[in-house]
Amino acid sequence: MEKIVFATGNQHKMAEIREILSGINAQILSMEEAGISVDVVEDGTTFEENAVIKARAVAGVTDAIVLADDSGLEIDYLNKEPGVYSARYMGEDTPYDVKNQALIQRLQGVPREKRTARFVCAIAAVFPGGETIVKRGTIEGYIGEKPAGENGFGYDPIFYVDEYNCSTAEMSGELKNSMSHRGNALRAMREELEKRI
After folding, report:
1. Is the whole model's pTM more than 0.85, yes or no?
2. Judging by beta carbons within 10 Å of its beta carbon (0-12, 13-18, 19+), is residue 5 exposed, middle or buried?
3. Fewest Cβ atoms closer than 10 Å to its Cβ: which of 58, 69, 183, 191?
4. Which is the catalytic residue, given 70, 93, 97, 162?
5. Other Cβ atoms closer than 10 A to 64
6. Domain span at residue 86?
């Protein structure tokens, strides 16, 4: 059976990945489960560049298929901040409830129609032999006036989806995965993987 190593140590992310790729003819491992430890400097200027940088760094030390993603939140009113710096916004060790509160404050008094935002996810796959594919997924929404929900992580409590009139942190995992940026990118990548596995 093929092995797929996903270049992350984030257990929330691994749970989503396993759910969306379930049934694929491959064993899906995190870097830790695969016994891989590499330091990666994500110095790309786009989500796609960072995903490829991560995937290639890990592919350099394994003969498995390597997947890596880079994702983040773009807020239109804030010139698409925090963007590729989403994880590092206000410092990597800053808790997300502090980051979320800061973003809500920066949007204080901004009308609902100007609070548009999206989550973006780019996933890169590097196959043995070096072939590289990148897929992008997005989900459109807006930044709410207060955090809500306990189910998500990161910026989920402040990201609201019109269609459901709730934040992505208020959604069930199943509903969120069916429409999320990572879900959309993974489903597109799954089609490519199935052609090759």
Report:
1. yes
2. buried
3. 191
4. 70
5. 21
6. 2-196
Task: Provide CB contacts within 8 A for 56, sequence distance 6+.
Answer: 66, 124, 126, 132
Q: In this structure, is the dihedral angle defined by the CA atoms of residues 112, 73, 140 and 97, taken in order, positive or negative?
A: negative
What is the number of domains present in the chain? 1
Is residue 93 annotated as a catalytic residue, yes or no?
no
What CATH number does residue 159 fall under?
Answer: 3.90.950.10
